[in-house]
């Protein structure tokens, strides 16, 4: 049996949408026991959001839910049912960490504020992730990743200066991926503090504030220089050439980045030392920057003769930073590096069959991770969790079940 | 410091731009983080923008942003004396964060295997474009190139132009955030087992993770989600995600299911109160509104009506009105909007740090989260080149003053 980094850690997730499940995803992947508390009345929107297996809707058939929920247990519980009180108490007593991403006030309405939880378990660690934080005039505002992309400045800085801003890559919802990493970091740092001092605490995490951490130099440019940065295509203020160039084929592209004069020399040699490259105006960085649009046109006259992979390999061999602009299919089917690191996983779920899961972006030398179980079906583990983890007897479970506590 | 979250821990940060964000986050958590630069300073000090636009290694705002809360020393790792000093530092260190090409640290005798022999508890986190091993491990890749190879690049931009990068340095930031998460996972395991380990982060995979929202569409429908400007494109039907308004842009989505019912109903009522809701919106049963059953003509009609309403309101009016009505919508903000945000002000987000050598106090964005018992703090501006050499080498490592001067003469620090 391999060691798992977080084995023994117990986590409860009152989570919804895309970001919530990701707040506890890495913990599950690295070996923690993670239980999702789900409600049929208020089910996770990604369970009903599709796309669905065979285009047939169903709570257990949505790919948008499954791809971020491997290795978790699902327990169905009607939080508003009077009979749920004892179960909730048992859940809190069992857990090291409670994570939620409901709007401010929802956990309180269920009698599960941090104070409520602390009264049950004094050293509990609790994290609440919301759109803009649990305090302030917008504490009750809700938002999805795309709104936080807009709010934090990511959208303004993405696209072409002569056109409206574009949504960012990843369907524009990057903050849904940004905030959870800070959440996992916060949870683990708080656990470390608890290990050393015996004290738990509450973490108030704002998707807005975490996304701003990805904008620091632009914000300082404003607070210091009063400059409002704007989107600038693929340019980079300290590199030229720096862009995405059309290659042979339909919608095929290669990214190239040249920072230093020696990289520039390596670059023009690699593309066959063309006459235009000898022009004195391209000799220095400032000259290349001043004439960047013209430079880019010359470069595209070269790249158009090659496939992105050919261009990438020719340039990489010369020590130039270059890469082909890939599709999901390229990454899934044709990337030897991802294969080498065993990035992709396939897990078999009862209603959907085999589906694709992403692995982890990092490998730990002594505690390799493994994806074991596909995303749970709705309420798949309700009885198992109650009887195996929460200490309910079979009779107690049946009685609560008949009362409708588990929906 | 009273009760900092991770006081008592120490980190050595020997990263360049690829890993500097991870070091900053360790420092913000309260780890005593020492930035180790080559003599003369790290190349990341030359990254713009600069204080008052004056290029100077002591004035890079990029450097300021990602090195606050750290102390700084210089050390030439390519000399044997420098390596010996680094090993001494590593004996009393909990974390090392590095971003050299794979194999470089081994060439210096400073890789995880070597250092773990003198300090078995050490955690070393390596941040590289593709990871430590494998067919791509020797390739070079900038932020833009890892965005390209990590699929994210193809997903942003206008259809009639090249794919476009998401903001600047996003790939490195995603990897930095993954690296801090991974480092804290290794730290948890060390707390349980007493053992350190090597953490191997791939920037391309960090990017691919955030591009992954499109994988369900490929896995299920074999649809490759293509860049579509400011629109959302789903199953061939398009509607805006970023909308023009009177003085700029707002982000809003026409949604389905439970969320759609709430927001579309509220928006229709709001538009109606201004006499701008067409009959087809008022008569629609939003409970039954379903993306997949909605035609492009339906979307176009809706887009036209909603767009007309947005065009006569400012982004500020729309955002405030939306929040009051439980509609999800935000202004497309720039840094000036960020700086004047009432929400951030109410949460005491901003931090002022003194830069005595500039004769100025600079306002910085604050920490990433609020901890009830051990609030995170940003207390120290980024170090000057070699600012803490004397503190570390003489006061902590116990070198004599003459040994210390010798290091300087030999160009080791």
Task: Please tell me about this protein's structure.
The complex is a heterodimer of chains A (407) and B (413). Chain A has helices at residues 19-23, 25-29, 45-49, 63-66, 84-94, 106-109, 114-120, 145-152, 175-197, 207-212, 216-225, 261-270, 285-290, 292-303, 308-317, 328-333, 336-340, 382-389, 394-403, and strands at residues 10-14, 33-38, 73-76, 97-100, 125-130, 202-206, 242-246, 253-257, 321-324, 344-349, 353-358, 362-364. The longest helix of chain A is centred in the middle third of the chain and has 23 residues, at 175-197. The relative contact order of chain A is 0.14. With 407 residues, chain A is α/β, with parallel strands linked by helices. In chain A, strands 3-2-1-4-5-6 form a six-stranded parallel sheet, sandwiched between helices. In chain A, strands 7-8-9 form a three-stranded antiparallel sheet. Chain B is α/β, with parallel strands linked by helices. Helix content of chain B is 39%, strand content 15%. In chain B, β1 (10-14), α1 (20-28) and β2 form a beta-alpha-beta unit. The longest helix of chain B is centred in the middle third of the chain and has 24 residues, at 170-193. β12 of chain A pairs antiparallel with β6 of chain B, so a sheet runs across the interface.
């Amino acid at each position: 049996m391999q060691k798992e980094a977080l084995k023994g850690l117990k986590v409860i997730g009152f989570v919804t949408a895309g970001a919530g499940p990701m707040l506890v995803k890495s913990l599950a992947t690295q070996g923690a026991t993670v239980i999702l508390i789900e409600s049929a009345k208020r089910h996770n929107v990604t369970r009903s959001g599709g796309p669905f297996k065979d285009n047939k809707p169903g709570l257990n058939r949505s790919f948008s839910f499954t791809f971020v929920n491997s290795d978790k247990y699902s327990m169905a519980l009607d939080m508003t049912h009077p009979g749920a009180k004892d179960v909730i108490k048992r859940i809190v007593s069992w857990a090291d960490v409670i994570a939620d991403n409901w709007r401010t006030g929802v956990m309180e309405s269920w009698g599960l504020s941090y104070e409520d939880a602390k009264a049950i378990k004094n050293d509990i660690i609790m994290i609440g992730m919301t759109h803009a934080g649990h305090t302030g005039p917008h504490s009750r505002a809700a938002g999805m990743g795309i709104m936080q992309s807009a709010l934090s400045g990511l959208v303004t800085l993405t696209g072409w200066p002569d056109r409206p801003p574009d949504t960012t890559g990843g369907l524009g919802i990057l903050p849904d991926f940004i905030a959870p990493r800070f959440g996992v970091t916060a949870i683990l740092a708080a656990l470390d503090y608890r290990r050393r001092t015996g004290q738990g605490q509450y973490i108030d995490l704002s998707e807005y504030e975490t996304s701003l951490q990805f904008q620091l130099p632009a914000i300082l440019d404003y607070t210091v220089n009063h400059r409002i940065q704007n989107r600038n295509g693929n340019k980079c203020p300290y590199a030229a050439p720096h862009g995405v160039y059309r290659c042979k084929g339909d919608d095929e592209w290669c990214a190239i980045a040249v920072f230093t004069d020696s990289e520039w020399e390596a670059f023009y040699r690699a593309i066959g030392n063309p006459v235009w490259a000898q022009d004195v105006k391209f000799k220095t960085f400032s000259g290349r920057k001043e004439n960047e649009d013209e430079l880019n046109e010359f470069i595209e006259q070269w790249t158009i003769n090659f496939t992105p992979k050919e261009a990438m390999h020719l340039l990489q061999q010369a020590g130039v930073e270059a890469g082909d602009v890939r599709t999901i299919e390229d990454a899934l089917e044709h990337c030897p590096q991802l294969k080498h690191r065993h990035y992709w996983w396939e897990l078999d779920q009862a209603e959907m069959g085999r589906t694709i899961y992403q692995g982890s972006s990092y490998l730990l030398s002594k505690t390799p991770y493994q994806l074991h179980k596909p995303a749970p079906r709705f309420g798949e583990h309700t009885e198992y969790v109650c009887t195996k983890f929460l200490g309910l007897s079979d009779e107690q479970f049946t009685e609560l079940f008949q009362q409708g506590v588990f929906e | 410091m009273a009760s900092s979250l991770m006081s008592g821990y120490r980190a050595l940060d020997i990263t360049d731009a690829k890993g500097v964000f991870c070091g900053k986050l360790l420092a913000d958590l309260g780890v005593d983080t020492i930035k180790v630069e080559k003599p003369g300073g790290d190349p990341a000090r030359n990254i713009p923008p600069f204080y008052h636009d004056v290029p100077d290694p002591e004035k890079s705002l990029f450097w300021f942003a990602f090195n606050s809360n750290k102390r700084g020393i210089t050390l030439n790792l390519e000399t044997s004396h420098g390596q010996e000093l680094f090993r001494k530092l590593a004996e009393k260190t909990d974390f090392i964060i590095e971003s050299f090409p794979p194999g470089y640290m081994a060439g210096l005798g400073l890789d995880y295997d070597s250092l773990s022999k003198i300090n078995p508890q050490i955690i070393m986190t390596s941040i590289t474009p593709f990871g430590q091993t494998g067919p791509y491990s020797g390739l070079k890749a900038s932020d833009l190139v890892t965005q390209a190879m990590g699929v994210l690049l193809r997903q942003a931009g206008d259809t009639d132009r090249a794919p476009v990068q998401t903001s600047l340095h996003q790939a490195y930031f995603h990897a930095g955030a993954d690296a801090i998460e991974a480092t804290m996972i290794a730290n948890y395991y060390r707390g349980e087992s007493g053992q350190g380990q090597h953490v191997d982060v791939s920037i391309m995979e960090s990017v691919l993770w955030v591009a992954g929202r499109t994988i369900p569409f490929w896995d299920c429908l074999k649809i490759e989600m293509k860049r579509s400007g400011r629109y959302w494109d789903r199953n061939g039907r398009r509607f805006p995600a970023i909308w023009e308004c009177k003085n700029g842009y707002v982000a809003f989505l026409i949604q389905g299911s439970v969320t759609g019912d709430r927001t579309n109903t509220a928006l229709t009522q709001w538009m109606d109160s201004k006499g701008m809701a067409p009959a087809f919106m008022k008569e629609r049963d939003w409970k039954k509104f379903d993306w997949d059953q909605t035609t492009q003509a339906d979307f176009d009609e809706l887009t036209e009506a909603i767009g007309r309403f947005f065009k006569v309101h400012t982004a500020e009016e729309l955002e405030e009105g939306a929040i009051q009505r439980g509609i999800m919508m935000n202004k497309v903000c720039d840094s000036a909007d960020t700086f004047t945000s009432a929400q951030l002000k109410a949460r005491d987000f901003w931090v002022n740090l003194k830069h005595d050598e500039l004769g100025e106090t600079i306002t910085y964005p604050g920490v990433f989260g609020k901890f009830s018992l051990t609030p995170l703090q940003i207390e120290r501006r980024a170090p000057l080149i070699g600012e803490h050499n004397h503190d570390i080498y003489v006061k902590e490592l116990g070198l004599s003053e003459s040994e210390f001067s010798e290091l300087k003469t030999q160009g080791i620090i």
